[in-house]
């Protein structure tokens, strides 16, 4: 049912960054399991959520509607997905759009709107590789540094932003 690219990305995110049940003080997501937060999914029974249910949510709400499968570079697709899980798809997509503009030099041609459209996908797939992945990771760090009201989480977020171990 799911592609190998998606399964690799979602398993990497869950195993590496989104463990079991958590309710961290100061986290606006509230009760969370496998990265699925009660604040974003008020109708989900978070305490009894299974890994398979979380994977299904990730596919339906994050991977498929944001066209991550169409990003040819599997590492980049996995990193964008991981950031979408961490801070929301619109924010992650904007990071990717900004990184692509920086690498491709298409300022003004790619709308920084948080939606991955045909032109953005074409540019991503043309300029993919380590340089775009690095630019994306730096955009993620910049985004997290800007969240002054959540600065207690910054060291963990930055480590996650730059984490590539086991991604390939």
Question: What is this structure, in a nutshell?
Answer:
By secondary structure, the chain is mainly α.
Describe the structure.
With about 170 residues, the protein is an all-alpha fold. It has a single domain (about 5-160), classed as Chitosanase, subunit A, domain 1 (Up-down Bundle). About 55% of the residues lie in helices and about 0% in strands. The chain contains seven helices and two strands; from the N terminus they run αββαααααα. It has helices spanning about 5-15, 50-65, 75-85, 90-105, 120-125, 130-145, 155-160, and strands at about 30-35, 35. Strands 1-2 form a two-stranded antiparallel ribbon. A hairpin with a 2-residue loop joins strand 1 (about 30-35) and strand 2. Helix 3 (about 75-85) runs parallel beside helix 6. It is globular, with a radius of gyration of 15 Å. The model has no long low-confidence stretch (mean pLDDT about 85).
The major pleated sheet works out as: 2 strands, antiparallel
Percent of residues in helical segments? 40-55%
Overall pLDDT: 87
What structural class is derived from the secondary structure elements?
mainly alpha
CATH topology: Chitosanase, subunit A, domain 1
Overall geometry comes to globular
Q: What's the CATH architecture name? A: Up-down Bundle
Give me the side-by-side strand order of the main sheet.
1-2
List the helices and strands and how they pair.
Blueprint: H1 4-16, E1 32-33, E2 36-37, H2 51-63, H3 74-87, H4 89-104, H5 118-126, H6 130-145, H7 154-161
Antiparallel strand pairs: 1-2
């Amino acid at each position: 049912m799911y592609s190998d690219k998606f399964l690799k990305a979602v398993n990497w995110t869950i195993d590496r960054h989104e463990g079991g049940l958590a309710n961290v003080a100061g986290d606006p997501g509230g009760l969370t399991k496998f990265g699925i937060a009660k604040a974003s999914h008020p109708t989900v029974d978070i305490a009894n959520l299974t890994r398979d249910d979380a994977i299904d949510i990730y596919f339906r709400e994050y991977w498929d509607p944001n066209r991550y499968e169409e990003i040819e570079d599997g590492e980049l697709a996995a990193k964008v997905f991981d950031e979408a899980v961490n801070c929301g798809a619109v924010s992650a997509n904007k990071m990717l759009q900004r990184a692509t503009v920086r690498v491709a030099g298409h300022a003004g041609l790619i709308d920084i709107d948080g939606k991955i459209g045909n032109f953005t996908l074409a540019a991503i797939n043309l300029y993919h590789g380590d340089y775009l992945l690095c630019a994306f990771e730096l955009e993620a760090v910049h985004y997290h540094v800007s969240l002054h009201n959540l600065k207690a989480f910054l060291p963990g977020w930055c480590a996650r932003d730059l984490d590539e171990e086991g991604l390939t």
